[in-house]
Amino acid sequence: MSIRLYIGNLPKEEIDRQDLQAVFAEEGDAVTTKLIKDRKTGKCRGFGFLTVNNDEQADQIIEKYNGQMFKDTPIKLEKALPRTKGEEGEEQPQQQVPKPIIQGSSTPSPSGNKEGNRRDRSKKSRRGSGGGSARETATSVDNEAFRPDPRWAADLEKLKQMLSAQTTN
């Protein structure tokens, strides 16, 4: 099974895949690189991907090349997050946490004014909320906001244990 590694902190200038592949030439043909470029300008977007054969090789490469200089900048290597929905060239290096929804005008007024409720619905439809009530949307955002980043889950667990040990003493 192949493993994808995220290569970050690449210079945002005219570089090509061969330049990046040359950095990992020591590893042989077992690794392939993909450089993500801006569609309009053709310049590097600052990141790319490296595909390796297995987890063991991925860990070795991360250990060996993380922080290595590439065109005067230290590159950052880590295991790539699972792909999100989107097109081939629109991969994102990090997951974004959704902004919380502030409930306000979309909730019915306590006086039960039907005219006010109609205004709220018309505003909601203009915003293009995509259906669902504000309360349902807020619940789904809350659930997503509390999921830790899988790359830091082990460190987060250690910190929780250290904190609980301090509070019990």
Tell me what you see in this structure.
The chain is of the alpha+beta class. It has a domain at 3-80: Alpha-Beta Plaits (2-Layer Sandwich). It has 5 helices and 6 strands, in the order E-H-E-E-H-E-E-E-H-H-H. A 4-stranded antiparallel sheet has the order 2-3-1-6. Strands 4-5 form a two-stranded antiparallel sheet. A hairpin with a 2-residue loop joins strand 4 and strand 5. The chain is elongated. The chain starts with a strand and ends with a helix. Mean pLDDT is 74; it is low at 89-93, 105-110 and 137-142.
Gap from first CA to last CA: 46 Å
What is the 3D form? Answer: elongated
- As a whole number of angstroms, the C-alpha radius of gyration is 23 Å
Percent range of helical residues: 25-40%
Summed over residues and divided by their number, the pLDDT gives a mean of 74
Largest sheet features? 4 strands, antiparallel
The largest sheet has its strands arranged as: 2-3-1-6
The arrangement of helices and strands along the chain is EHEEHEEEHHH
How would you classify the helix and strand content by structural class?
alpha+beta
What is the second-level CATH architecture of the domain at 3-80?
A: 2-Layer Sandwich
What's the β-strand tally?
6
Annotated CATH topology of the domain at 3-80:
Alpha-Beta Plaits
Distinct helical segment count? 5
Low-pLDDT windows of residues = 89-93, 105-110, 137-142
Range of strand content:
15-25%
Top-tier CATH class of the domain at 3-80: Alpha Beta
The H-level CATH homologous superfamily of the domain at 3-80, spelled out, is RRM (RNA recognition motif) domain
Region (Disordered): 68-169
Domain RRM: 3-82
Biased composition (Basic and acidic residues): 73-87, 144-160
Protein name: RNP-1 like RNA-binding protein
